[in-house]
What we know:
alpha+beta, Beta-Lactamase, Alpha-Beta Plaits, eight-stranded mixed barrel, five-stranded antiparallel β-sheet
Amino acid sequence: xxxxxxxxxxxxxxxxxxxxxxxxxxxxxxxxxxxxxxxxxxxxxxxxxxxxxxxxxxxxxxxxxxxxxxxxxxxxxxxxxxxxxxxxxxxxxxxxxxxxxxxxxxxxxxxxxxxxxxxxxxxxxxxxxxxxxxxxxxxxxxxxxxxxxxxxxxxxxxxxxxxxxxxxxxxxxxxxxxxxxxxxxxxxxxxxxxxxxxxxxxxxxxxxxxxxxxxxxxxxxxxxxxxxxxxxxxxxxxxxxxxxxxxxxxxxxxxxxxxxxxxxxxxxxxxxxxxxxxxxxxxxxxxxxxxxxxxxxxxxxxxxxxxxxxxxxxxxxxxxxxxxxxxxxxxxxxxxxxxxxxxxxxxxxxxxxxxxxxxxxxxxxxxxxxxxxxxxxxxxxxxxxxxxxxxxxxxxxxxxxxxxxxxxxxxxxxxxxxxxxxxxxxxxxxxxxxxxxxxxxxxxxxxxxxxxxxxxxxxxxxxxxxxxxxxxxxxxxxxxxxxxxxxxxxxxxxxxxxxxxxxxxxxxxxxxxxxxxxxxxxxxxxxxxxxxxxxxxxxxxxxxxxxxxxxxxxxxxxxxxxxxxxxxxxxxxxxxxxxxxxxxxxxxxxxxxxxxxxxxxxxxxxxxxxxxxxxxxxxxxxxxxxxxxxxxxxxxxxxxxxxxxxxxxxxxxxxxxxxxxxxxxxxxxxxxxxxxxxxxxxxxxxxxxxxxxxxxxxxxxxxxxxxx
Length: 708
């Protein structure tokens, strides 16, 4: 069964609930209000913040409030029973009386536990007043029809119970969805038009009305002329016949409650299912997992919880749009289901996280085989809106009862194993071990601290100098991000930068790095060294940001940077991930005067055909090729070839990791353009970098203070 994208469903759901004329109230199991819709605030005058956390009974006040009905309501709700279309007189916040018709349905989970009440209230003040006028005046049926026509959106029927004849007001055409010629002329025809499952209830209502009861109320379905099923609520009264002791006439109002029913059904569905994929949601997963754990304990077998996280899914959302991302999630949900057995469970937690529960497991080998099947099913190409996409996932596994005896423990341990699968290269399955818990706890601790690093001023930039190879003239600095905390000391960038990307902090931190680097350049320029350039590394997430160019322009304008002094560095793999998007973003910034460099050259896998299309000025040879050039002939050949390639493409080559004089002399002899490394200068704090600029320290002499 296919569902519309989540954004569309939520939009439709909001339109139904927030624009219906019916009042919608949702409470928890203790009947404390969690939500009311705009119709409720409009009718009652109570604001949302005035009713949240209060019980509806606390808002029932006024001299004529029917306390007996209130007591019956409380009794029914205390027993978890539904309240079907009970009328109640209430008062607005301003003290104005109004009549409501209540339909309160308890919501239960799959285990039968009461979780919420959903109340749909119809303001029937006008209808109530019309019927009271009918009963008080004891007019003929024609008068009842005349009053019913005055109602703007209801229809009425009248009839002679003894003769089984019916009369309809014109509004019946809209409520029943049939042409005027199709309106039933008698009770038998009316019953025949009602859905078979609901027919008995309406027939019984007419029987009781004819014998002894004064009113009735019943809901039923009818098929409109357009073929769509409509829900109708019929609320009737009997009127005394003139000259007869026994009442013989019927008057009823009919309401189209299709939208109310749809709202109620949708709310019940969303309580247990994910709207986008149709899979079980978190609430249903937890409830069913508890049941499966009990069954597993009794059988003596095992149960496996697989935590699946799609690899690099954010890239799809950022580069192709969330509508493509939603389609990918739906396909992934289908493929997860196709990879498991009939008695297994697949759920979506949210975002790109899924849970798969494998039941009746004899040994770990079964989990490994099913995990491989799931990954295989997921790896097939997806064709969405003319694009071929490839998606993989990282799977973490915890076993019951070995790895926990609660739902929370099993999911937490499977999550920890999933992160280990990410660290091992993604698109793989990893079984939880106790050591992972410490790693997961450490990661959570670091992420929490990283969120406070900027406001606590724990982040800083250190600057490594870059020199012209031919005469060792200082050309500029590469800005390197550092993190120091009072408790943990220096935290390596390779630990916290990937964490910042995963936690969604990289844009905030990246903005700070750009601004701080530009601010430091302004300090050098104010000392008469405006010719120096400053290089800043960009994350893949920053390059995918459509607002990158405007962000960079704002920083340059704030600190008055002229063209060609700001250089942005990208790794080869980042630049080649989506060449078309990368080239466009890079060209836009190049037009602003920003220069580009490709970092870690030689470690990627992209072709030179793509590389030569990038609007770059220089490439940076990775330090791994420089490290052993004085001893390794292969490294010497690679360095020489890289220099020749760069020059052939009209680019400068920057050699990183120059650590001794022998390496420096070889690179100079091969025509290397720019060098940086510990032999020439270690990364240093901003003040030390400023001192190096101002004092023109000989780069071959004593190096300035270094950072870790």
